[in-house]
Amino acid sequence: QSVPSQPPSASGTPGQRVTISCSGSYSNIGTNTVNWYQQFPGTTPRLIIYSNNLRPSGVPIRFSGSRSGTSASLAISGLQSGDEADYYCASWDDSQKAVVFGGGTKLTVL
Amino acid sequence: QVELQESGPGLVKPSETLSLACVVSGYPISRGYHWTWVRQPPGKGLEWMASSHPSGTTYYNPSLKSRLTISLDTSKNRFSLKMTSVTAADTAVYYCARDERHCSGGVCPGIDVWGQGTTVTVSS
Q: What pLDDT is stored for residue B105 in this prediction?
Protein backbone atom coordinates (compact mmCIF):
# COMPACT_ATOMS: atom_id res chain seq x y z
CA GLN A 1 0.00 0.00 0.00
CA SER A 2 1.34 3.43 -0.97
CA VAL A 3 1.15 5.82 1.99
CA PRO A 4 2.03 9.48 2.59
CA SER A 5 5.53 10.21 3.74
CA GLN A 6 6.32 11.87 7.06
CA PRO A 7 9.70 12.60 8.65
CA PRO A 8 10.33 9.94 11.29
CA SER A 9 11.27 12.52 13.88
CA ALA A 10 10.98 16.20 14.73
CA SER A 11 12.07 18.24 17.70
CA GLY A 12 11.88 21.65 19.27
CA THR A 13 12.39 23.51 22.50
CA PRO A 14 9.59 24.75 24.78
CA GLY A 15 7.86 27.78 23.33
CA GLN A 16 9.14 27.12 19.84
CA ARG A 17 7.00 26.49 16.74
CA VAL A 18 7.48 23.18 14.96
CA THR A 19 6.06 21.88 11.71
CA ILE A 20 5.50 18.29 10.64
CA SER A 21 5.07 17.56 6.95
CA CYS A 22 3.01 14.90 5.20
CA SER A 23 3.77 14.31 1.52
CA GLY A 24 1.26 12.32 -0.47
CA SER A 25 -0.02 12.04 -4.01
CA TYR A 26 -2.83 13.36 -6.16
CA SER A 27 -5.05 10.39 -5.36
CA ASN A 28 -4.98 11.04 -1.62
CA ILE A 29 -3.92 14.44 -0.27
CA GLY A 30 -4.22 16.06 -3.68
CA THR A 31 -7.90 15.18 -3.86
CA ASN A 32 -9.14 14.49 -0.34
CA THR A 33 -8.94 16.15 3.03
CA VAL A 34 -6.32 15.40 5.65
CA ASN A 35 -6.66 14.50 9.30
CA TRP A 36 -3.97 14.56 11.95
CA TYR A 37 -3.78 12.31 14.99
CA GLN A 38 -1.76 12.59 18.18
CA GLN A 39 -0.77 9.42 20.01
CA PHE A 40 0.99 9.09 23.34
CA PRO A 41 2.74 5.78 24.12
CA GLY A 42 0.29 3.06 25.03
CA THR A 43 -2.77 5.16 24.28
CA THR A 44 -5.40 5.50 21.58
CA PRO A 45 -4.84 7.97 18.72
CA ARG A 46 -6.60 11.28 19.23
CA LEU A 47 -7.97 13.41 16.41
CA ILE A 48 -6.42 16.89 16.59
CA ILE A 49 -7.03 18.25 13.08
CA TYR A 50 -9.71 17.24 10.59
CA SER A 51 -10.63 18.40 7.13
CA ASN A 52 -7.15 19.90 6.66
CA ASN A 53 -7.36 22.72 9.18
CA LEU A 54 -10.24 22.31 11.63
CA ARG A 55 -9.80 21.58 15.32
CA PRO A 56 -12.21 19.39 17.30
CA SER A 57 -13.46 20.95 20.48
CA GLY A 58 -10.90 20.73 23.24
CA VAL A 59 -7.85 20.87 20.98
CA PRO A 60 -5.71 23.93 21.78
CA ILE A 61 -5.46 26.67 19.20
CA ARG A 62 -1.69 26.06 19.26
CA PHE A 63 -2.35 23.19 16.85
CA SER A 64 -3.03 24.14 13.23
CA GLY A 65 -3.12 22.34 9.92
CA SER A 66 -2.79 23.24 6.27
CA ARG A 67 -2.83 21.56 2.88
CA SER A 68 -1.27 22.64 -0.39
CA GLY A 69 -1.27 20.48 -3.48
CA THR A 70 -0.27 16.95 -2.53
CA SER A 71 1.22 17.89 0.83
CA ALA A 72 -0.09 18.79 4.23
CA SER A 73 1.46 20.21 7.38
CA LEU A 74 0.78 20.22 11.08
CA ALA A 75 2.11 23.17 13.03
CA ILE A 76 2.42 23.34 16.79
CA SER A 77 3.21 26.71 18.28
CA GLY A 78 4.21 27.47 21.85
CA LEU A 79 5.62 23.96 22.14
CA GLN A 80 5.10 22.28 25.51
CA SER A 81 6.61 19.16 27.03
CA GLY A 82 3.16 17.60 27.00
CA ASP A 83 3.16 17.75 23.20
CA GLU A 84 5.78 15.04 23.05
CA ALA A 85 4.01 12.26 21.14
CA ASP A 86 3.68 10.54 17.78
CA TYR A 87 1.77 12.38 15.07
CA TYR A 88 0.08 10.78 12.06
CA CYS A 89 -1.52 12.25 8.97
CA ALA A 90 -4.32 10.38 7.19
CA SER A 91 -6.37 10.76 4.04
CA TRP A 92 -8.65 8.77 1.79
CA ASP A 93 -6.99 7.47 -1.35
CA ASP A 94 -9.21 7.35 -4.43
CA SER A 95 -6.97 4.92 -6.31
CA GLN A 96 -6.49 2.41 -3.53
CA LYS A 97 -10.03 2.88 -2.21
CA ALA A 98 -8.56 2.95 1.26
CA VAL A 99 -7.60 5.28 4.09
CA VAL A 100 -3.85 5.84 4.09
CA PHE A 101 -1.93 6.85 7.17
CA GLY A 102 1.44 8.51 7.03
CA GLY A 103 4.28 6.62 8.66
CA GLY A 104 4.17 8.84 11.72
CA THR A 105 6.48 11.45 13.23
CA LYS A 106 7.88 11.22 16.74
CA LEU A 107 8.00 14.69 18.25
CA THR A 108 10.57 15.33 20.96
CA VAL A 109 10.54 18.42 23.14
CA LEU A 110 14.13 19.16 24.09
CA GLN B 1 -21.77 10.08 23.14
CA VAL B 2 -20.66 7.18 20.99
CA GLU B 3 -18.23 4.67 22.46
CA LEU B 4 -16.51 1.69 20.88
CA GLN B 5 -15.13 -1.36 22.67
CA GLU B 6 -13.09 -4.04 21.00
CA SER B 7 -12.79 -7.66 22.03
CA GLY B 8 -10.43 -10.33 20.78
CA PRO B 9 -8.74 -13.62 21.69
CA GLY B 10 -5.48 -12.12 22.95
CA LEU B 11 -3.42 -15.00 21.60
CA VAL B 12 -3.78 -16.73 18.24
CA LYS B 13 -1.68 -19.50 16.73
CA PRO B 14 0.01 -19.05 13.36
CA SER B 15 -2.13 -20.06 10.37
CA GLU B 16 -5.34 -19.74 12.39
CA THR B 17 -8.16 -17.25 11.87
CA LEU B 18 -8.34 -14.14 14.03
CA SER B 19 -11.81 -12.93 15.00
CA LEU B 20 -12.36 -9.46 16.43
CA ALA B 21 -15.53 -7.69 17.50
CA CYS B 22 -16.39 -4.09 18.30
CA VAL B 23 -19.46 -3.18 20.31
CA VAL B 24 -20.81 0.29 19.67
CA SER B 25 -22.81 2.18 22.28
CA GLY B 26 -24.54 5.52 21.95
CA TYR B 27 -25.32 5.25 18.24
CA PRO B 28 -27.06 2.66 16.06
CA ILE B 29 -24.57 1.49 13.46
CA SER B 30 -27.43 0.95 11.03
CA ARG B 31 -27.87 4.72 10.69
CA GLY B 32 -24.59 5.47 9.01
CA TYR B 33 -20.81 5.96 9.19
CA HIS B 34 -18.08 3.71 7.92
CA TRP B 35 -17.20 1.31 10.72
CA THR B 36 -13.49 0.73 10.56
CA TRP B 37 -10.57 -1.39 11.74
CA VAL B 38 -7.05 -0.02 12.18
CA ARG B 39 -4.07 -1.87 13.60
CA GLN B 40 -0.68 -0.95 15.01
CA PRO B 41 2.17 -3.46 15.31
CA PRO B 42 4.47 -2.99 18.30
CA GLY B 43 6.65 0.06 17.83
CA LYS B 44 5.21 0.79 14.39
CA GLY B 45 2.68 3.08 12.79
CA LEU B 46 -1.04 2.90 12.14
CA GLU B 47 -2.36 0.69 9.35
CA TRP B 48 -5.91 1.01 8.06
CA MET B 49 -7.44 -2.39 7.43
CA ALA B 50 -11.09 -2.26 6.39
CA SER B 51 -14.36 -0.40 6.68
CA SER B 52 -18.03 -1.16 6.20
CA HIS B 53 -21.08 1.09 5.83
CA PRO B 54 -24.63 -0.06 6.58
CA SER B 55 -25.48 0.63 2.95
CA GLY B 56 -23.35 -2.39 2.10
CA THR B 57 -20.30 -0.47 0.90
CA THR B 58 -17.15 -2.21 2.05
CA TYR B 59 -13.52 -1.37 1.54
CA TYR B 60 -10.34 -3.32 2.27
CA ASN B 61 -6.68 -2.49 2.45
CA PRO B 62 -5.41 -3.88 -0.88
CA SER B 63 -2.43 -5.54 0.81
CA LEU B 64 -4.69 -7.42 3.24
CA LYS B 65 -7.84 -7.86 1.20
CA SER B 66 -7.45 -11.57 0.46
CA ARG B 67 -7.40 -12.39 4.18
CA LEU B 68 -10.05 -10.05 5.58
CA THR B 69 -13.80 -10.10 6.04
CA ILE B 70 -15.60 -7.25 7.74
CA SER B 71 -19.25 -7.47 8.73
CA LEU B 72 -21.90 -5.47 10.57
CA ASP B 73 -24.42 -6.97 13.01
CA THR B 74 -27.04 -4.28 13.41
CA SER B 75 -29.15 -6.42 15.75
CA LYS B 76 -26.31 -6.42 18.29
CA ASN B 77 -24.96 -3.01 17.26
CA ARG B 78 -21.53 -4.36 16.68
CA PHE B 79 -19.17 -5.05 13.82
CA SER B 80 -16.53 -7.70 13.33
CA LEU B 81 -13.37 -8.49 11.47
CA LYS B 82 -11.99 -11.88 10.51
CA MET B 83 -8.43 -12.35 9.33
CA THR B 84 -7.31 -15.71 7.99
CA SER B 85 -3.88 -17.33 7.94
CA VAL B 86 -2.32 -15.12 10.58
CA THR B 87 1.42 -14.90 11.10
CA ALA B 88 3.68 -13.24 13.65
CA ALA B 89 3.54 -10.11 11.47
CA ASP B 90 -0.12 -9.75 12.44
CA THR B 91 0.79 -9.21 16.09
CA ALA B 92 -0.59 -5.77 16.87
CA VAL B 93 -3.02 -3.62 18.77
CA TYR B 94 -6.28 -3.65 16.83
CA TYR B 95 -8.52 -0.60 17.03
CA CYS B 96 -12.08 -0.23 15.88
CA ALA B 97 -13.14 3.24 14.88
CA ARG B 98 -15.86 5.37 13.34
CA ASP B 99 -15.22 7.10 10.04
CA GLU B 100 -17.47 9.92 8.92
CA ARG B 101 -16.50 9.96 5.29
CA HIS B 102 -19.46 12.02 4.18
CA CYS B 103 -18.41 15.57 3.48
CA SER B 104 -20.80 18.41 4.19
CA GLY B 105 -20.01 21.92 3.10
CA GLY B 106 -16.46 20.84 2.35
CA VAL B 107 -15.97 19.52 5.86
CA CYS B 108 -14.97 15.88 6.10
CA PRO B 109 -14.53 14.61 9.67
CA GLY B 110 -12.86 11.30 8.77
CA ILE B 111 -11.97 8.85 11.54
CA ASP B 112 -13.06 10.72 14.64
CA VAL B 113 -13.87 8.15 17.33
CA TRP B 114 -11.65 5.24 18.39
CA GLY B 115 -11.98 2.26 20.66
CA GLN B 116 -9.34 1.58 23.31
CA GLY B 117 -7.75 -1.18 21.28
CA THR B 118 -7.24 -4.87 21.87
CA THR B 119 -3.85 -6.55 21.79
CA VAL B 120 -3.44 -9.63 19.65
CA THR B 121 -0.32 -11.79 19.74
CA VAL B 122 0.29 -14.44 17.12
CA SER B 123 2.43 -17.19 18.57
CA SER B 124 2.50 -20.94 18.87
A: 82
